[in-house]
Structure formats: C-alpha cells, structure tokens
Amino acid sequence: MKFLKYHISIMLPLFLLFFAVESFYMLKQIIDNYESNISNDYSIVIVSKVPLDKPMLKQKVDNISNVKIITANRVVDRLKKSISLGDLKKLKESLPLFYSVKLQKLPDSHQLAKIKKAILSVSGVKSVSTFQKSYSKFYNFLVFDKMLLQFFAVFVAIIVLLLIIKQAEVWIFEHKQRFEIMSILGAPFWMKSAMLYRVVIVDSILSSVLVSAIFFYFSHSEKCLRYFMDIGISLPKFDILKDGVLLFGIGILVSVISVTFAIIKLNKE
User: Which residues belong to CATH 3.30.70 in the chain?
Assistant: First the structure.
C-alpha cells in the first residue's frame, strides 16, 4: 500500500503535467488551424483607378499571397433594362476597379495599418478597406488565448516540479540511513540515487502512456470529431510516436531535474 501510495504521489503530478502540455499543444494547433482558416477567408478590398496585379503590390507589401479582381458585371447587368446602351458603356468606363487581396498570414493591428498605408501609396489606388475594427477584436482574442495557454502550461510545470522535488525529499528522508551507509562506503552519486531515478523514470513511462491513451482515444473518436466539426474546428490527431515520445521526454527531464535538485540539497545539508 505504501509502495502504491508513493508511486501515485509521483505519477499524479506527472499526469497533470502531461495533460496540461498536451492540452496546450492541441489547443495551440486548433487555434493555428482556425487562424489559418480566417487568413484564407479574410481579404482586403482595394478600389483603384488603374489595373493592379500581384507583383506590383508585392513591391509594397511582402505579406500578400493573392490578388483577385472583383467584377461589377452583376451590378451593371441589373441596369441594362433601366438605361440605354450608351449610358451603360459610359458607366462601365467610369467605374473604378475593385480588387480582393489575401494575405499569407494574419497581421496584428499595427501591421494592418502599415499594410493599408503601403497600398494607398501605390499610384492610382483610391481607397483601401481592411475592416480593421471587427478584425482586430477577433485577432486580439486569438492572441490572448495563446498567451493564456502558455501561462497555464508554465504554471502547471512549475507546480509539478515543486511537487516532485518535495516528494523526492520525502523519499530521501525515509531512506536517509541507507544514503548515509552508502556514503560511508564511498558509493558514487549515481549509485546512491539509482533507485530514485529508476522510480521516476518508470512513473514517467506509465503517466505518459496513460495520457497518450486518453488523447489518442478522444482525437480519434467519431463523436468528438463530429462535435468539433459542427462548430467549425478541425481537431488534430494525436500522434503516438511524436506526441507520446515528446511527453515521455518532458517527464524524464522534469523528473531527473527534480530528483537531482533534491539530492544536491540533501548533500549540502
């Protein structure tokens, strides 16, 4: 019972750490995918007196990915029955050219203002509509979400680190006599702490496997995929090799640092 309690006291913090890290990583992927979709849908509208093309605008703004002309044929066609052909021709000649410009990546408010200013400097451009007010609110919301997720992951990592250090100190205190005997016999550092390192490595493996199984199930569950699809979000798949190994590596790093810190602290005392 004591052995199980000790393992749970290490596995639980590691489980929380792995869960927080993988949640952060998945939510970041979801936000990045959503941001990419917004970038594909978002466009800047340009009104110009002269024809424009992508190379011309790229000289001013590197972030431009596509330039497409917006035809006014639908509007003109509606007026065919209302005005004469001569007036219709004059109307077509007097109408400015409209362009839809898409960007490679979403800019922030400051960058968007600079893009607008740069496009307006192009000869023949009359106006530029960036829809900055509505766009900026949503963009700032995405940026805030990312910052919040990063803060949460770092906070959990610090708490877990402190919990494992404290548990390692408890374990060392319980086996203090064994450590003292091995020190008297001249045992090296790694030999005295080998059992503790072995325990945290085993617990890291078990915790990473458990979290990997949970995220693998939910990321491949048809019910979950359908739910996220209904709200317009693409749920990333959990990669056992890539994500599982990453979690295990993080667990080993945190565990080894915690145990080493606890042992060094004991030696100084």
Answer: 41-137
What is the spatial distance between Cα 244 and Cα 242, in angstroms, rounded to a whole number?
6
Whether the predicted pLDDT of 182 surpasses 80: no
Instruction: Show the CA angle centred on residue 260, arms to residues 255 and 261, nearest 5°.
Output: 100
First to last CA, the chain: 30
| CATH entry 3.30.70 includes domain 41-137 | yes
Question: Which residue reads 């606890």 in tokens?
Answer: 262
Q: Global pTM?
A: 0.66
Tens-digit pLDDT profile for residues 221-236? 888 778 777 766 677 7
CA dist 222 → 71, 92, 210, 216 (Å): 42, 53, 20, 12
Q: Are 33 and 234 in contact (CB under 8 A)?
A: yes
Which residue carries 């004991």 as its tokens?
266
Note the pLDDT tens digit of each residue in 228-264. Answer: 777 666 777 888 888 888 888 888 888 788 777 777 7
Could you give the angle at which helices 245-268 and 2-41 cross, rounded to 10 degrees? 130
